[in-house]
Amino acid sequence: MNTERTNIGTGFWLRWVLASMLGFAVGAPIGNAVTDWAFTALFGAAGGFMKWLVLRRQIAGAGQWVLDRV
After folding, report:
1. pLDDT in tens, 45-60
2. Which of 3, 19, 43, 62 has its CA 20 to 30 A from that of 49?
């Protein structure tokens, strides 16, 4: 694992914040429309997916981490 620090800049930070906002904005109404118990799962999944879209450009192998954990 490479532990070197790199300066990712404000562009990454902005994409991260926008991905979080968009993911939660999409996940909240869908989860609420389905049922209350699914609300939390869909809310988190949508937010996590949007963040993954940002992270996969910055971290090598970020697209494979789910398969590595199974």
Report:
1. 888 888 888 888 887 7
2. 3
Q: Output the pTM of the full model.
A: 0.49
Let me know if residue 1 belongs to a domain: no
Q: What is the DSSP letter of 64?
A: G
- With contact defined as beta carbons under 8 Å apart, do 20 and 49 qualify? no
How many other C-beta atoms can be found within 10 angstroms of the C-beta atom of residue 17?
Answer: 11
Helix-then-strand count for the chain, H and E: 3, 0
Instruction: Say what angle helices 9-34 and 36-58 make with each other, to 10 degrees.
Output: 160
Distance separating alpha carbons of residues 1 and 35, to the nearest angstrom:
41
For residue 64, give its domain range. 17-69
